[in-house]
Amino acid sequence: MEPKIYAIDTQRVDLSEIDFPGPTLDIGGGGEGVIGQINDEELIVIDQREDELREAPSGGIKLVMDAGDLKFLDNSFAHATSFFTFMYIPPEEHQQVFAQIFRVLKEGGQFWIWDVKMPDKGAREENVFVVPLQVKLKGKEIETGYGVPWNREQDLNYYRDLGENNGFAVLEASQFGETFFLRLQKKK
After folding, report:
1. Distance between CA atoms of 90 and 66, rounded to whole angstroms?
2. Average of pLDDT values for 131-159?
3. What is the span of the domain harbouring residue 66?
4. Contact 169, 57 (CB under 8 A)
């Protein structure tokens, strides 16, 4: 079956004021390595695909690892990030990934999530959902995009509920166009 693409309008994400002091775990940070371009100090980048890690800009420690089976000690990280990664993780694995991230975060640690609202496909013939992005970092902009098979829907409320059900407190939740941002904190 030939892919039929449904691309939303280009979304803008501003990360120019973001900083992650302390040890940070970036889930699915291969490819463009956006989080690694913010701060590669004390950064561990994981991705299931070695080729994606090889493509990522230098900086940080890169490991091939499944986010649902993190090989780190409990309470290891001050921050965890997911930049348009959950759209690639099957929904049936989301609960396990959240539980693992909660486990490896220190008390008071924060989980930062950026992702895209994917509506119900309904009767559309398109089978690939694509989000083109313009990402503003300190001193530069990146143009990229992410595409996945369109076989589900997701939104901010889904991830907010998942976070709260896993013991996180919601510090910030916002939607910009078709993208959203969620900052969660491991309760002390």
Report:
1. 12
2. 96
3. 19-118+152-186
4. no
In a domain, 140, yes or no: no
pLDDT band at 40 (very low <50, low <70, confident <90, very high): confident
Q: What is the C-alpha to C-alpha distance for residues 21 and 14, in angstroms, rounded to an integer?
A: 18
- In whole angstroms, what is the distance from residue 95 CA to residue 98 CA? 5
Burial class (CB in 10 A: 0-12, 13-18, 19+), 42: middle
In whole angstroms, give the CA distance from residue 106 to residue 129: 35
Under a CB-based contact definition with an 8 Å cutoff, are residues 130 and 146 in contact? yes
The CATH number of whichever domain residue 175 belongs to comes to: 3.40.50.150
Residue whose tokens read 């701060």: 39
In a domain, 14, yes or no: no
The three-point CA angle 22-164-102 to 5° equals 35
The answer as to whether 171 is a domain residue is yes
Please indicate, yes or no, whether the overall pTM of this predicted structure exceeds 0.90: yes
